[in-house]
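[Solved] Which block belongs to which protein?

Original post:
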Amino acid sequence: MSPNDRSGSGTIVAPEASTDPLPWHAQPPDQALAALDSPDDGLTPDEAAERRRRYGPNRLTPPPRRSALMRFLAQFDNLLIYVLIGAGLVTVMLGEFVDAAVIAGVVLINAAIGYVQEGKAEQALDAIRNMLSPQAVVLRGGHQVTVPAEDLVPGDRVLLASGDKVPADLRLVRVKGLRVQEAALTGESVPVAKSADAVAADAPLAERGGMAYSGTLVAQGQATGVVVATGDKTELGRIGTLLAGVEELTTPLLAQMAVFGRWLTIGILALTALTFLYGSLVRGEHWADMVMAAVGLAVAAIPEGLPAVMTITLAIGVTRMARRNAIIRRLPAVETLGSVGIICSDKTGTLTRNELVVQTVVTVAGECAVTGTGYRPEGEFRRDGKALDPGADPVLTELARAALLCNDAELQRGEDGGDGKGDGSGGWTVAGDPTDGALLALGVKAGLDVREEAARCPRTDVIPFESEHKYMATLHHDHEGHGVLYVKGAPERVLSMCAHVRAVDGGSAPLDAGRWLARVEDLAARGQRVLALAARPARTGQTVLDMEDVREGLTLLGLCGFIDPAREEAVAAVAQCQAAGIRVKMITGDHAGTAQAIGRQFNLSGDAVSGSELDRLDDAALVAVARDADVFARTTPEHKLRLVRALQTAGHTVAMTGDGVNDAPALKRADVGVAMGCKGTEAAKEAASMVLADDNFASIAHAVEEGRTVYDNLRKTILFMLPTNGAQALVILVAVLAGYTLPITPVQILWVNMVTAVTLGLALAFEPPEAAVMKRPPRPQDEPILPGFLIGRMVLAMALLVATSFGFFLLHEGHGDPTPVARTMAVNALVMGEIFFLLNARAVTASVLNRQGLFGSRPVWISIGLMLVFQLAFTYAPPLQSLFGTAAVDWTQWVAITAAGLAIFLAVEAEKAVTRRVMGRRG
């Protein structure tokens, strides 16, 4: 079995067929090198070429894609569209080419809108592929050579240095101070120290210290590693494969509309068949006339403008959300946001800032809280709730000086110096390790100047941080020859090197190690990462620093507690979501203690559940845990995906937020995937259906509000359009059953449908949010689009519209007016009734008999004005008279039509008043 044929967890089966395979991270370096047949001087060029032929290039395999033609043809895969196409074919066979052309235009416009919207829906895998390093330094035949990353093969020895992107999955064999930024893959907020040591076979991804994974970034140090997996077999490739296999769910509205469309189609076909059979067999009408009547009924009943109006309504929601920093990539996500009941959020960079800050300093004098935001070097020290002058505290000043000098990072500020991100950071970033950046900010907050301190006491020598000894040490001398050693590192390690602690008066006192370890544990319990700082005078004439110089006899200066702080605006946004009945769950790859501490700041209940605990749960037990727990730590991409699926199985509409590659599969599976726009990876953005331009969790709350408004407006649009289409169909059905001439022809019906859809139907998309929209609970997935009382209103409106239209047709026909005049009156009466019913539809249950209800929407009155202009042209313009078979009518007829429309308006308002009374009694 080849190295690249092993399981996604990196299980190795050596060429000599090991009977006890171990994951790569559990193999000692020598064993891994032997299994991969990797010689000390690297593979020869010939061997590398042979392995490349055997294993293929080091790139991710693209999935099969639908052609543009197939994507366009897929837009016609809809039952209602099939019925329309069938109706168009029938009209062609009967020679009614105008009707056929109008039907074809409606169908093609709807298909074009859907085709454009799908244009960029499948770019997630491309983004992941582009994360691979373009080049790599390898050892080939005893020489260091630079090769394209896709030429790497299992067994290659790769050399890593600071700033490199890891080109393949590597088993590290030699390490020198290596720290790797794995946040995009594991969610770890700080670079991870690496070593060549093997770890337990069941160690989670974030704790495999002997591995460097493809697509991660070397933050510090050097290393040599042997390639153990390339292309699709890497962890990055496994996520890509996982992403390709994730099924995107339909949205609640689309699912409801699909069911509605099926029933509507069945009803339309049944009515069409009934119309044809009754007219032909019972009434004895000519079959061709009955075919056209049946076609007219089908065209009338099908709300062919509804798909376009839905798309436009969603697009308006997209525009509104964009103004609030929520960029929608897939239109249906707008509506889905309105029904979200659970938001699964990544921690690092989403709920927190992904910027370390020193929050606590502990010296012999006690504990100090440090204020400030991100790497911005502004803030104050507070002890017992009172501001403290660090310059008056010699121990605090010395600790801050050690933090500045025992440091390899640099704070940088954007050229404009502004707060472009709007997050309070002031545009400050760190070049180097985030921990060092936080220490620099601490020193400046204490009143020290980085350049002045470095000039006053320049560095003479350094022991770089390495995971083997877990500390960094520097030697400094002032210009009078006095030297000092500063040490920072893991508290347990530094405390073991200390004999004294700096006293309040600047002297030294014996160290009580147990007491200080208890303080370390207290800070860790609060979710803080702890670093200890120590010092000692240099020997006279000392210019070189080695480990013996710091092994013992140091004086402890104090402890620093670091945290990736919660975004203040995110805390408020989570509280707003919780008030709206939305549960927020945090799913992170970080440590359980850190996750739980951050969770408490967001009022997330319960203990953190670790990824290893999730692994022991079957699917049924996972559903219960996913429902009850709010904080999940040390999770992998599979864990995130399982949690999202479990919550969906329990009937919840789930939004998932994230910014890393490891979030991409869950982002795609979620009902709404939300990626971070500033710090998010391209893979996360492409897998998501929404991107936050400001990386602000608060924008999600705004998006949910807009989503609920969009759903309300869609429901109002459906409530308006279905009765109007139904009335048109009923006019034809009643005419056939009664044996009358058709009051409205099929082509006239298409005219009304199209013109109404782009005027009256569109107006409701601009309706503002209803009162208390964010105080009601999320909409259940099984809630019907139209509850019973709205269906009753639709039946009432249809009956009134049919009576008005049919009544005017019979009235004029009875007076001996030509059929074109009678039909013109029937069409205009129907349109006027729709105009007044539009005003009714502005409020689902509330009365519109007030100034706001009647005149509070400019779009409504603009659409009414446009509709009247269209109808005047329909009635009086000779070309349209010829095309649609209409005739001119005098102004008195318009007065009568308006009065009839007003009667419909008042009747519906009376029904709403009765409905409010009944609903009030039911509570």
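(Second protein starts here: sequence line, then its structure tokens.)
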Amino acid sequence: MEELAVSYQSEAQLERSMYEQLIRKGYDPVVLSDYDALVENFRQQVNKFNKKKLEDTPLSDEEFTRLMTRIDKKSIFESAKILRDKVILQRDDGSEVYLELFDTREWCKNLFQVTTQTTVEGKYVNRYDITLLINGLPVVQIELKRRGLDFKEAFNQIQRYRKHSYKGLYRYLQIFVISNGVDTKYFANSDSDILFSYTFFWSDEKNSRISNLSVFTDTFLEKCHMAKMIARYMVINESDKLLMVMRPYQVYAVESLVKRALETKNNGYIWHTTGSGKTLTSFKSSQILANEPHIKKVFFLVDRKDLDSQTIAEFDKFEKGSVDTTDNTNKLVEQIQDMTKPLILTTIQKMANAVKNPRYAAIMEAYQEERVIFIIDECHRSQFGDMHTAISRHFKNAQYFGFTGTPRFEENKSQDGRVTADLFEKCLHTYLIKDAINDGNVLGFSVEYHRTFNAELDEEDETRVEAINTEEVWFHEDRMKLVVENIVDNHERKSRSKGYTGIFTVQSIPMLIKYYDLFKSYNHSFKIAGIFTYGANEESEGRDEHSRDSLERMMTDYNGLFLTNYTTDTFSSYFSDVSKRIKSAQIDILLVVNMFLTGFDSKTLNTLYVDKNLKYHDLIQAYSRTNRVEKATKPYGNIVCYRHLKKKTDEAIRLFSQTDSTDDVLMRSYQEYLNEFHASLKKVRDMAATPSAVDELQREEDQKAYIESFRDLTKVLVKLQTFTEFTFSPEELNITRQEYEDYKSKYLMLYERMKKHVDKASILQDIDFALELMHTDRINVSYIMNLLKDIDFNDAEDVKKKVKFIEDELDRADNEELRLKVDLVKGFLQRVVPTLTNESSIDETYITYEEEEREKEIQSFAKEVALEAEFLKTYIQEYEYSNIIKQSEISDSVKGGLLKKRKFSKRIVDFIVENTKRFA
């Protein structure tokens, strides 16, 4: 107990220091011992903040009750919208007043408070470390762990609080902060699960990390800055019904761009690496500038080929209906004429047509001298350079701001000899791939190079390499078969048993068709698809079929796999469907030439196979399709090259990292990870020489050390398993598969024991067990929920087909968690799905359905065993939180003799366990 007391005091000291620092920073201290005190304080603050609007007459009891009815007990998403809006309240005399909960424009004028150790009772008693309040509403929650502890334990603690006691006004929490004094991160609140990968470090403008709690408090939690983050740099994502908070480099980029636009007439560009969230940054910049009264129009330009269903959905998240998807330039010109529409999102191609076409000249002339701003996504593309002159003729006072992950330099200048700075002048902010990897915002790459022919060749001799770039060599059937065999033999492991998906990019359409047919000739269980654009009048001499006919064949196969009905006449719909299925890992390998290699985001894409020559921006753009952060089971993007691209890879990484080293971006070799595995295994065996020795670890500190050692061992194993040369060889790994599985069983046993005996003083309570590393199930609950989100509920035929597909997937699921829910999900499919629309939130609807079904089940069983339903719910809640079942209490609550008590008690205990497994 003495050691625990020291630990507690250390944590308390950290909290006290931070609390005092916040008071020095201008926060008013307030003592809020419990939830009632929080509500009473909110009443006082809302009266004070709205004093002028209330004409010095504070809200009466009835008025405050009406206000609470309007704002209380909403979802986190709804609360976030209410916070940023004005609340109309009817006063007792019948008049109406517009109350403000938060000033989003002059954020420094809000009222700021800090409180500590508020005790809140939900299902259980929880005590919160530090809470920051704006106008009486809790908006930032800080959880601390003592120095030396993994601060992910603070993250797990918040997850428990969110589940058990963040109710009522605590739904207004916008941002969480977690720290152990040395490392500090922040993240947005959400109604759904929050992944640790969505927690961010703060940094300065030059991307130097600010992780020390004291410095973080001075910078990020400075009153005006904290309020500005909530007011300006959080995004309400309408389509996913969630809150997003911007990362530091996004904030600095927006601020530097807005400053340049408002203070100068000069252009500029933002260089943020691919995968770092440029869309959000660029759109937020557009929104802020569009609200400036002296700026007449902000045009956000994208390339037509990037305007797929994903990009449209991305922009719709930030501003519903902001994208005009038609090819009709008239619609764009109508928007230009509409003075109430300051922000227009359109394609480069339509804008080019609007400025060149004489019939629109009169309308365009009205803007010749006006202040307009063009924001160009992926500005390294040559298309914008081609139309820049035409735009400049029409818009004399235009300013241009570009966003790119791969700028044009002298080394990779465009065909007409231009570099990015020629058009956009100055780089306003950079966030390079090495920065993003260091921050955990994107993944690094593990690149394998395979020789696919045996010619005597010095592969460093570029002249010789280029000399063999002939169809004769690259199209040779034996060579292509070697490639297909390599993919078929290794993709199961690369994709973690098909939990992830791959893209195979090849040099031409004929090569793609040949590869597709070769894959079909092999015996495998992978779902392979192909996509490309065919030429209407292409040369077909010497070929057996036109490429359109080849694509038609691929679509027929695809229709058979997924119960769809696409043809080349419905190509855009096919494209959208392929995009969705790559994102939900339903397609195992997609064959492409150029499509999907730029601008396509998918967390489930983890492997790129390459049989084409790539360099500079094309190479980085293609590789970056695999580097989106997901779970611990995706440690990096796998790149498998069947061409000698090592030199080109190193050149591209050096150019876009602005460094002489590739070590920050490329992962280590198989041998280096193998050495790390051996070192991790030694640590495990030092803790427990054999799996059975784990049972002898009595002290919690020793159990924790074993958990952390075995978890680290498994993380290295996950990396090793992605390499082609990996086999579970006892000679190489120094451990048999059976011994590893036995160690894993002990690890899971400790996890189960921790769940059953949750003790407030237990150091295991919030430890990160990283259970996703221990399982490789593909068809799990989140997979099924993603399939549901892909349904077009306005199309009855699509609903019918997709529901049938999901039912088939459910029937072959082997994930334990999902097997328990199969009947539930099928009931949802049959009874609820037919009533949904595209506006429905799948997550919310399913949660409501589950809660209703659980309630029915509890009521029915309680009646069966003649037990009060409320008693039964109390026992279930106790078990859910602490894994404790109070058998003697249950037995006492059963009326009747000893035999009946024994029989019914066992049934009740079994029901509690099963019900919790199915629903919790």
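Accepted answer:
You had them paired correctly. Confirming on the second one: The first strand starts at residue 28 and ends at 29.
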